[in-house]
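Archive entry: two folds, one per protein. Generate the first.
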Amino acid sequence: MPWWGYLIIGIIVVLLGILVALFVVGRKLQRRQVEQEKQMKAMAQTVSMLVIDKKKMKLKDSGLPEMVLEQSPKYLRRVKMPIVKAKIGPRVMSLIADGKVFESLPVKKEVKVVISGIYITELKSVRGGSVIAAPKKKTFLDRFRKGKDSGKKTAQKSSSNSKKK
């Protein structure tokens, strides 16, 4: 067998080893995530609160307690997180929201949410209205499709205006 054959076999063995290692680590992380979700559901409370402000900001700028900052992984300290400033009873608190909940939370309104620690997991209801669905993000291609549709509509309007005259 030529030397490049051994090289290819060696590369395949190394890649298979990496694949097996990723599989084992992935299963371990998945089990840990399931356990954390169980704990969050066990600690969940429904709370009525007034949303003062919501922003995406870094953890160190968010006004969260120092203990939370110390316990968070280093890579999360630099990432912008969805932070909600809310008044719960007499206290004003900074909370971390789930991404889907953050988009649909109205500002300057009273809402009922499910909280687990300092994490907002679910939006139950909005006072004086119903829960607003989170707006869908437009993809890159949607911008061009919309442009084509609006061009057809303006052409139809101009042709209908010319027919009326």
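Generate the second and append.
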Amino acid sequence: MIAIYARQSIEKKDSVSLETQIAYAKKEILSEDYKIYQDAGYSGKNVNRPAFSEMMQDIECGNIEKVVVYRLDRISRSIVDFADFIDILESKNIGFVSATEKFDTSTPMGRAMLYIVVVFAQLERETIAERVKDNYYARVKKGAWGGGPAAYGFDLVRTTIDGKKATIYQPNEHIAIVQQIFEIYAKPFTSLADVQKILIQQGSLSAGGVHFDNTKLSSILKNPAYVKADIAIYNYYQTKGVIFANDAESFDGEHGCVLVGKRDASERKYKDVSNHLLAITHHKGIIDSTTFLYCQQKLAKNKQIKNQYKGQYSWLTGLVKCGHCGYAFSVRFANTKEGRTPYFVCSGKYLHQCCDVKQTHRVKEVEDFVQAKLIQEAEHYHLRREQKQNTIMKEQQQKIADIDAKIENLIHTLENASQISAEYINRRIETLHQEKQLLLHQFAEALTTYNSMEMIPFSAKDWVTADICTKRDIARNMLEKVVLSKEGIFLHIK
């Protein structure tokens, strides 16, 4: 059976439609049976596409004898992905045809020409990406919106800047909430929790339609889009190492700013703004610089202190979560016939007022349940751990073996390759070798990390004599969390 593959990133006037691609491909087929695989709305930067994956499964099953495409870059614009694809076809003696680019994959020169064409396709993609990035920063430097969602309290509106259409911020009805957030937090003895409580009480919601939390409040307070940027703001961000799109005179104490830049996905948005671009915008700020800078000073002092889970009433403190709202449970006391009795109560209901489920659980009953499960878990832990370690080893060893097989096939191909083709094959071998070394390194690190996560050994007898600190360490070593709900107690074991 013949496979016809078509891909279109986005549908626009100057792009070749899927129907046109398939029509061209059918011209390369005589009377053979064929199957059409088409991916609409998927980029060629990688091969993570549903129809492409389906085609590769059919290739692995031996159902395909030839692959026909409209053009090479329909497969991928990545030289590495395309080379892997061709290697798979060659290993299974499957033909490959480009309807608009005639290449004979049965000869070394034909294969070399394929790789050269894909190199230029990848270069084109990277050039387009760089051009998009340049346009993004060019818009920001002119004070326009660069992209992404609007800051809370603003809408996006179209306007004209220097004769060109652009998008800028315009305040909406939520801007009053932003002003309130700054006003409350700028008071000497208020915290983010105080701001949160007031907003919950008055029913104010964030952009996602949910209650404000510390992260959302901190992001608003740090965003220079709200400040009336003057020379004090210029000096503040100069100490942070930002790149200025405007000179100091442009900080007129009237307009806001936009701050953009690349950051690690694991870092918060305004944690490190060095080498970010700061530009004066066309919208006016709403917060004076003195209030804004005072808030930055308070936020800087709010160093996140690591929770050591030193709860004195239960060794489960910090692990117990509500199954309905996700907030943590805290310990409160009630007078019963047994005396002063500790209970787990939901912080979402009694502190944040965002959980409507009424539930209480006696601390001792929860601890007894979890204790029994942990002792039972400890008995089977080492057996499961050994099985999991063997699985990790087999998976990594299989990946390494697959790379060795690819390298062996390429070395065999080198024997009959031309000089031009040999250069590309040698590069591919070097790439595979680097991937193998990385896998070996990751394999060693994974085993080291896994071995370091040894569970604290204990038995039922040990548990009886253990103090609260030891029990807490064991619980945190074995559990991700304990979820309490009206349906019961649920353990999430690591």
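Annotation attached to the second fold: The chain has a mean pLDDT of 81. The chain is about 45% helix and 20% strand.
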